[in-house]
Design a protein that fits this description.
This protein is mainly beta. Helices cover 3% and strands 40% of the residues. The protein contains two helices and 28 strands. It is globular and about 55 Å long. The two termini are 26 Å apart.
């Protein structure tokens, strides 16, 4: 499928697929009988797309799986696949939240699927969070086995907390454990004073367990490290607050451990000026969005040791910085290996979807001096397919996934699937 090439440094376009006009969001992958299958959640379409990417230069559309509940305000942004199990996320749509309709009908929680037959998911169970503000789950984690790690709302709490779900019987999921920041526990008398309609500033954006630790990107609470040796009773180990002074609308969006080197990659989420003004009422300049590297040699005292460089416009660009370019500017999702056998897992290189700055690749062999070594900025979309990422139509690289063959998959809020390779 032909596509206009973007602007690149040490990157090449391998393939493209329009995904049937359904822009993608988070991705997951599995290999079965030497064939490579990509599972893609969607930004504004309820359901999940399955692609055969055995030949990355010619992705094959296999099937779109509609969200079974079909309630109009359900959002299905996230997906994980491991051990023949697919976990799909359900939440109240961002559109309903932004437009001040927190009671729109939606399904919320997770669905559990059998995907041992890669192209024909079999629905096994639906687990509900039970309610709460900003209802549902968000950036969850599953790398196989017994436990699913959720960013989830919960009755009696404000915002998302950490909830661990036991799927030893995947047809009957049960909660095994939970952890929260004390200020969230409204039922216990806590007084939360931050915004709750559009996006609570004190909530878990996403967990990343590794070994007997869980690394939590906890928005305004920063990086939180937990001991999860006992899944029933997670215990606090350490914390690094980054806001103030760092952090934008979502102050800490991601926390990805590189535990062979006792490092954690952290970042906030970017946002466009018009969206920031609408969401917060603030005018003027955007707060700094950042990506950084944290040393966890002493887990009780995580220490920020470096900051990733801000992307510079390519030579000849008609804007002097990416803030001037239409659309959102700032960091979004990193490639997350999730202990998955078919995904690239390196401690010296990281990949980042950077909204209107495209996809950026960094060498972190020296954690004190992270260097950008490659980028790919897709051309701006020609047609608006969703309502997301700003008033002006512009590229918005949402998520990035890298397989162990070196193929880089990138989704966009108004385009299809780009497949790239880094030549550096």
């Amino acid at each position: 499928m032909e596509i206009e090439e973007g602007i690149a440094k040490n990157m090449e376009l391998v393939g493209y697929h329009d995904m049937g006009g359904r822009p993608g969001f988070q991705m997951a992958m599995q290999v079965v009988d030497n064939r490579w299958y990509l599972y893609c959640a969607h930004y504004r379409h309820q359901g999940w797309t399955i692609m055969d990417v055995t030949d990355p230069s010619a992705p094959i559309f296999m099937k779109f799986i509609p969200e079974p509940g079909g309630k109009p305000a359900t959002s299905t942004l996230k997906v994980q696949v491991a051990d023949g199990i697919m976990i799909t996320q359900l939440q109240l749509s961002l559109q309903s939240l932004k437009e001040g309709r927190p009671n729109d009908p939606c399904d919320e929680g997770i669905r559990i699927w059998d995907v041992k037959d890669p192209g024909n998911p079999k629905h096994l169970a639906y687990w509900k969070t039970g309610g709460g503000h900003w209802i549902g789950t968000h950036r969850n984690y599953y790398d196989g086995g017994r436990y699913v790690h959720l960013s989830a709302t919960c009755p009696g709490f404000t915002g998302h907390i950490y909830r661990i779900i036991d799927i030893i019987d995947p047809t009957h999921p049960v909660e095994a454990g939970r952890w929260w920041v004390p200020e969230q526990f409204g039922a216990g008398g806590a007084k939360y004073t931050g915004p709750i309609l559009t996006h609570p500033s004190l909530q878990l954006h996403g967990p990343y367990p590794k070994g007997n630790r869980a690394y939590l990107a906890y928005c305004d609470a920063g990086l939180v490290i937990l001991d999860i040796s006992d899944m029933k009773l997670p215990k606090f180990v350490g914390q690094l607050k980054t806001k103030p002074p760092l952090g934008a609308f979502i102050a800490l969006h991601s926390a990805i451990p590189l535990t062979k080197r006792k490092l954690v990659i952290i970042s906030s989420e970017g946002i466009g000026m018009e969206s920031y003004t609408k969401a917060t009422g603030s005018k003027g300049v955007l707060p700094l969005g950042f990506g950084g590297i944290v040393d966890i040699s002493d887990e009780t005292n995580p220490t920020l040791i470096s900051i990733f460089p801000v992307p510079e416009p390519p030579p000849g660009a008609p804007y002097k910085n990416f803030h001037e370019k239409p659309g959102w500017f700032g960091l979004h999702n990193w490639h997350e290996p999730h202990n998955h056998p078919c995904l690239e897992d390196r401690d010296d290189r990281v990949y980042l979807a950077y909204f209107n700055a495209g996809v950026r690749v960094y060498d972190i062999s020296d954690p004190l001096l992270p260097r950008e070594i490659a980028y790919y900025i897709p051309p701006d979309p020609k047609k608006r397919l969703t309502s997301g990422r700003g008033d002006k139509l512009a590229v918005a690289s949402e998520d990035v996934l890298v397989d162990k063959r070196g193929n880089i998959y990138v989704t966009d809020s108004n385009m299809g699937l780009h497949v790239l390779r880094c030549t550096a």
